Amino acid sequence: MSMAVVASLNTLFGVLFLLATFMMLALRQTQAILHAYVAQALLLVGSTALLAVAAASPELAIVAFITLVAKPLLVPALIVRLLAPALRAKREVQATINVPATLALALAISLLAYFLTRPLVAGVDPVVQVNVPIGLDVLLLGVVMLAIRREAVPQLMSLMVIDNGAFFAGIAITTSSALVEFAAALEGVMVVMIVALLTRAIARSLGRTEVSALAMLREGKAP
Amino acid sequence: MSGLLLLPVLPIAVAAAAALGLRGIWVRAATLAAALACLALAVAAAAITERTGKLDLVPDWFGLNSLGALFLLLAAALAVTAALFSTGYVRHLTPDGAAERRYYLNFNLFVASLLLVPLMLEVALAWVAVELTTLLSIFLVGFANTGEALEAAWKYAVLTIMGATVAALGFFLLLWGLAQSGGGPQTFDALVSAAPAMPSALRKLAFALILVGFGTKIGLVPVHTWLPDAHSQAPTPVCALLSGIEVSLILYVVMRLLPVFTAIADFPIGDWLIVVGLLSAGVAAFLLLQVHDLKRLFAYSTVEHMGILLTALGFGAGAAYGTVYHVLTHALAKSLAFYAAGVVVLALGTRDIGAVRGLLRTNPFCGAALLAAGLAIAGAPPFAVFLSEITILRAGLAAEQYWAVGLLAFFIVVAFLGVMRHVNGMVFGEPKSDVRAVLPASAVATVVIAMVPVLVLGISMPGPLAHLIEVAAAEIARTP
Q1: B71 Cβ neighbours under 8 A, 6+ residues apart
Q2: What is the pLDDT of residue B224?
Q3: Domain membership flag for residue A222
Q4: Can you give B36-75 as a three-state secondary structure string?
Q5: Which residues face B120 on adjacent strands?
Q6: Is A202 inside a domain boundary?
Q7: Is B229 touching A (CB cutoff 8 A)?
Q8: Radius of gyration (Cα) for chain B, nearest Å?
Q9: Is residue B238 a contact partner of residue B245, using CB atoms and an 8 Å limit?
């Protein structure tokens, strides 16, 4: 593949990666959010594999493989296995602000990410020019998603979106050893497992997973 | 010194044994023995780094510098007192043998993660170790399995994992900067050496991401909201570890990276640290005044002390000694404060500050312990926290940061009054009730043992320890 083809394919992946994030912000059903997450994780794998082929880098190929096993496969499998009742809930999950306002905010954040990274990516590799701004953008959008979601499972997926954003930028700008990659992937799977188990404990104890309703701890109240 | 690699292995082995069925007195004794062995190793490692400045285990991957050695020493020391306090406390908390085993499984894994952080020379692995300290303590925070404990665990998990991931992008950017300026091993030292060649826009963005991300995990205002919950709902020995050393260990990673961000043109990093630090110290000092829960009181004090430390880092190289010294005194005094609060809660069965009066009469040991711990953490002379705070304020004056020093001194006084107002109310006065519960001997012993360094270090500092603080301070103060 010529560099120009790689660059334009990667741009396509980047745009779709960002689009999947916007969809997750707009969607209101837990299962649909999970599907959008899987699509996003697959695009992360796609971008990594593309970079591996372009640079003929066996290291990046390993990263792509580890990411493939962890993010679009193990993570959703764990969520489905541990949190099936919360996923099957057909009702709409609540957010603190409505969809149009969320999307307007997301647009503003995308512009911010673009301007924050502009001085960094001037004159560098076209792949980096795509991955760094979009990575930062998706990371910030994940923080927004975390802040506006009221339920445990969408909040957990927001954490994974933040993670995907960081790694979308990371794969384009760093090279690291297999040990570090393995540790990072294992850590990602651990996050999902532990937070999912905690969600299950909350569901068993309180009978629901609406974590925004957790407000027992506050000031001015005797313990 | 390859025995140092045993440090995380020992607690992990005990955790594995607990998972496989080690129970009762055996798991309690094994946990304490592993912690004591780790402390012995940490003392040996600190003695070497105090002389040589650093200790390589696997070059470019694992090892210690003098700053790391001091943190390792503190983590191991607190692991010992926390393990000792746990022996009687967990049995008191739950008569269920399976729950006790689960506690020790998680406790030992958490201790292993704490010991790992200062041993990492490789930057990405240091980040992974930081994330492990969160992941392996979530179930400890939620251990009581009450609505409150699960709520605290949820806030803790979500906010600090978010913070660490935001910081991860900052780490990626720094590694990119390293690759742009020639590459090489991805260690803290290599980053510091390569820093002048990195574009300043890159360093600024990385600094912002790491400050916001790890700031969340340190509990800096305004992203501190999870800390008073998590650091008060966890079992008492875990509170001592979380507040005493875990948050400081995250600050340790920031300290290792700090020389990368100094000397950026048009970017007064010291002012940023001072502003964020004073905000945390100030907000926490005033929030201290209105708490009703004894453990929350000491948790807010942690936010205040993290603010003091960040402000001290902002004062620059001159305050490096005071910063490291304060990490030490805070770790010792804060763990003591939680043990003292722990025996009070054990004796009275309540954490409600307003429900307790005249503790010195109804339970003289608890009363004296709480009074001494309160004075120690609030920074009264002759306790060591007083000396380290004075050292920081003097360094700030020497750096001509008069406004910041004035505000910091004011917040320290407010926090002092806040802590002592609550403690005095509980310790003195007419007793409301006459409960004289029998305390576990291990809990009493922990309070006495934890009191010793807090008292001794206020009066005299052993020479080798003072020298270790000096060489550790030089690590923060260096410039690329």
Answers
A1: B117, B118, B245, B248, B249, B252, B327
A2: 93
A3: no
A4: HHHHHHHHHHHHHHHHHCEEEEECCCEEEEHHHHHHHHHH
A5: B62
A6: yes
A7: yes
A8: 21
A9: no
In a domain, A37, yes or no: yes
The pLDDT of residue A83 is: 87
CB contact under 8 A, B125 and A201: no
With a threshold of 0.90, does the pTM exceed it? yes
CA distance B40 to B36: 6
**Mutation choice for A interface testing from B143, B165, B178 by most A CBs within 10 A:** B165
Which structural domain range is residue A133 located in? Answer: 3-213
Contact assignment for B135 to A194 by CB distance below 8 Å: yes
Six token digits for residue A99:
């969809």
> Using the beta-carbon criterion (under 8 Å), do B150 and A205 form an inter-chain contact?
yes
Query: B202, A176: Cβ pair inside 8 Å?
Result: no
Does B474 touch chain A if contact means CB atoms closer than 8 Å? Answer: no
Nearest-CA distance A47 → chain B (Å): 17
A220 part of a folded domain? no
Query: Which residue among A152, A191, A221 sits closest to B292, beta carbon to beta carbon?
Result: A221
Q: Is A3 exposed, middle or buried (CB count within 10 Å of its CB: 0-12, 13-18, 19+)? A: exposed
Query: Is residue B436 pLDDT above 70, yes or no?
Result: no
Q: Is the pLDDT of residue B434 over 70?
A: no
Give mean pLDDT, residues B257-274.
89
Q: What is the 3-state secondary structure (H, E, C) of B70-100?
A: HHHHHHHHHHHHHHHHHHHHHHHHCCCHHHH
* pLDDT band, residue B91 (cuts 50/70/90): confident
Q: What is the mean pLDDT of chain B?
A: 93
pLDDT of residue B264: 84
Residue A222 pLDDT > 70: no
Q: Which residues in chain A touch residue B139, judged by CB atoms under 8 angstroms apart?
A: 194, 197-198
Give the distance from residue B199's alpha carbon to the nearest chain A alpha carbon, in angstroms. Answer: 8
Residue A219's pLDDT is 66
- How do the domains of chain B map onto residue ranges? 268-480
Q: Which of B313, B294, B321 is nearest to B468 (CA)?
A: B321
Which of B125, B156, B169 has the most A C-beta neighbours within 10 Å, making it the best mutation to test the interface with A? B169
Q: Tens of pLDDT along A126-148? A: 889 999 999 999 999 999 999 99
Which pair of tokens denotes residue B161? Answer: 């994992």
Mean pLDDT of B75-99: 92
Average pLDDT over residues B389-408: 96
CA–CA separation, B181 and B183 (whole Å): 6
Chain B contacts of A217, Cβ < 8 Å?
148, 151-152, 228-229, 233
- pLDDT at site B435: 65
With an 8 Å Cβ cutoff, are A194 and B157 in contact? Answer: yes
Query: How close does chain B come to A103, measured CA to CA in Å?
Result: 21
Residue in chain B lying closest to A206 (CA): B147
**Interface contact flag, A223 B165, Cβ < 8 Å:** no
A72: which 2 tokens?
A: 């679009």
Contact B165 A135 (CB under 8 A): no
Question: Average pLDDT, stretch B282-287?
Answer: 96
DSSP state of A53: H
Asked whether B351 and B293 are in contact (CB, 8 A), the reply is yes
Query: In this predicted structure, what is the pLDDT of residue B111?
Result: 98
More confident: B465 or A209: B465
Closest CA to B261 of B224, B314, B223, B309: B314
- For residues A165-177, average pLDDT: 88
CA distance B214 to chain A (A): 15
Selecting from B135, B169, B350 the residue whose C-beta is nearest the C-beta of A136 gives: B169
Helices (H) and strands (E) in chain A, counts: 9, 0
Q: Which two tokens stand for residue B91?
A: 């049995």
pLDDT at residue B133, as a whole number: 96
B158-207 confidence digits (pLDDT tens)? 999 999 999 999 999 999 999 988 878 999 999 999 999 999 999 999 99
